[in-house]
Amino acid sequence: MSALVWITEGTWPACVDAALSRVVPEEEITLLYVFDDTVAETAHGAFAGLLGRGHPERDPGHRIEALSDSAAARLLDSAEQRLGRPAQRVLTHGRTERKVVEAATGADVLICARDGDRSRLGPRSLGPATRFVVDHAPCPVLLVWPGEAPPTELPPPPPPPGPHHRH
Q1: Which stretches of the chain score pLDDT less than 50?
Q2: pLDDT tens digits, one per residue of 150-163
Q3: Out of 5, 8, 10, 125, which could bridge 114 as a Cys pair, Cβ 3.0 to 4.6 Å?
């Protein structure tokens, strides 16, 4: 079995802990971090538009990329240290949700965490990228809470009647 663990700034400890409790030592674990290029591209575009293209050494987009890669490497170091065993590490750039789905191809399980509204259960407990990943992952997904799940009435009350419900 191979597990892909999606590492993000706010939820990585819960994902690593889930891998620790569910993946046996002989099984392969890959830690994945995706740097979304949007911020660096925006900074680069603003710099080029305002100050021209003649000074690439002063382009903040390049500095943002370098700082982000360094921070991501430290985050992967921390995740591997918490895991307590060697893991394959993947640091990639691009649209986060698409890169995660692409990386999950061939994995036996993808481990990720809820990253939206953590005050209640339900669809809003997933951010947009995580919702896309859950909907499009080519393998089973283990979705964990990055802390204690909020208390709730089980089962949740039925939705209010509306035009789409039959009486």
Answers
A1: 60-61
A2: 777 666 667 778 77
A3: 125
